[in-house]
Amino acid sequence: MRIGIPLETLVGETRVAATPETVKKYVAAEHEVCVQAGAGLAAGIPDAAYREAGAALVDAASALSADLVLKVRRPAAEELAAMRRGAALVGMLDPFDRAGLEQLAGAGLTAFALEAAPRTTRAQNMDVLSSQANIAGYKSVLVAAEHYPRFFPMLMTAAGTVKAARVVVLGVGVAGLQAIATAKRLGAVIEASDVRPSVREQVESLGARFIDVPYETDEEREAAEGAGGYARPMPQSWLDRQKVEVARRVAQADVVITTALIPGRAAPTLVTEDMVASMKLGSVIVDMAAGKGPAGIDGNCVLTEAGRVVQAHGVTLVGETNLPARVAADASALYARNVFNFLRLVLPASGETPAQAGLKIDLEDDIVAACLMTQDGQIRRK
Ligand code: NAD
């Protein structure tokens, strides 16, 4: 099968969907790999490394017209136009964006969105949400430290003592846990909040304090259990009490990192303008939900502006929407392995007759069925 790896065209996207390591494995399985010249440069991978791994270096049109195209982001309209009807596509394709899926179906692609893989043990090595959120969580702390006009660690120097930074992390999934671990390594004092009670132990094991908001009704307890490892919207009664507890911590904080998301829904609003105004001059908020908030709000904080760094009430608000792209080499290395691991489920073994779209699509396989977004001109999303 001819596998194409185009250069990503979205502004600011530095990642690439295959590395020399994974290219070698595709070539060893007797696939022909075509990498667009320059596709890996922003991730620190020269063309020569792909050539040495056995790939042919081609132009965009040739990479996009392959039987199977590996992408990081959903193809733009001009990229879709260059793809073959009946070809297969694997990438992060925004499974909740119906209009985007219609475009993929309209282009006649068999498209797999890796974000839709279930959170199961078998799917762990192809879980792009985890691999990229982990990187984003790490980078969020470094970005905060960059904007924060003080030290993170407590320091005792001849010129006097410097206090440790107080960091509040809101939402403790994969990104939040890595943010806690990274802030801890930098010497900060950390508190964290999440709707899911199972998180408390993880927070405490990383040396941070869990912001306790007890559940008072069965409805609250049930909602807090979530679904499939993900959060569900919490009843307003609990959110109101959480707001009071979080507001107290935010007012004391030097840095707030928000990561709260609910799959398929707008990100919850956790930081109000009053909370921002209560923070000390020079404090920093990094809003990792930037670009995912409800209508009129960009992230978990009402003052976040997606894609921008802004100041409000003397606080710096960071609304970067693609933190993994700022760690391009490792983000690509992990993403490319996720893609390779997924493809093991659908690529025919050498010598096997390729089925539909050249792939064997076993809908009995829960991972394949969950990731399949479009096929034969139709949306197949489960
Ligand atoms: P996510 O990115 O969907 O959400 C981030 C966090 O925001 C979650 O912890 C969520 O509970 C929290 N949140 C939502 N609403 C909130 C609110 N109002 N206030 C505070 N926090 C709020 O989550 P994720 O990082 O994708 O992880 C979800 C879960 O899945 C985690 O428990 C993770 O450990 C688990 N997981 C399991 C596997 C596996 O078993 N293979 C793999 C990856 C992740």
Describe this structure in words.
It contains 13 helices and 17 strands. By secondary structure, the chain is of the alpha/beta class. An eight-stranded mixed sheet has the order 3-2-1-4-5-6-16-17, with helices on both faces. A seven-stranded mixed sheet has the order 11-10-9-12-13-15-14, sandwiched between helices. Strands 7-8 form a two-stranded antiparallel ribbon. The protein is globular, with a radius of gyration of 22 Å. Helix 6 runs antiparallel to helix 12 (328-346). Bound molecules: nicotinamide-adenine-dinucleotide (NAD). The site of nicotinamide-adenine-dinucleotide has 30 residues, from helix 6 and helix 7.
Average pLDDT: 95
- Count of extended strands: 17
Order of helices and strands: EHEHEHEHEHEHEEEHEHEHHEHEEEHHEE
Strand content: 15-25%
Task: Report the bound ligands by name, code or SMILES.
Answer: nicotinamide-adenine-dinucleotide
* Poorly predicted parts: none
Please report the number of helical segments. Answer: 13
The main sheet comes to:
8 strands, mixed
As a whole number of angstroms, the C-alpha radius of gyration is 22 Å
- Assembly status: single chain
Topology:
Elements: E1 2-5, H1 20-28, E2 32-36, H2 47-52, E3 56-58, H3 60-64, E4 68-73, H4 77-82, E5 88-92, H5 98-106, E6 110-113, H6 128-147, E7 155-157, E8 160-162, E9 166-170, H7 174-185, E10 189-193, H8 199-205, E11 209-210, H9 218-225, H10 236-252, E12 255-258, H11 273-278, E13 284-287, E14 309-312, E15 315-318, H12 328-346, H13 366-371, E16 372-375, E17 378-379
Parallel strand pairs: 1-2, 1-4, 2-3, 4-5, 5-6, 9-10, 9-12, 10-11, 12-13, 13-15
Antiparallel strand pairs: 6-16, 7-8, 14-15, 16-17
Helix pairs in contact: 1-12, 6-7, 6-12
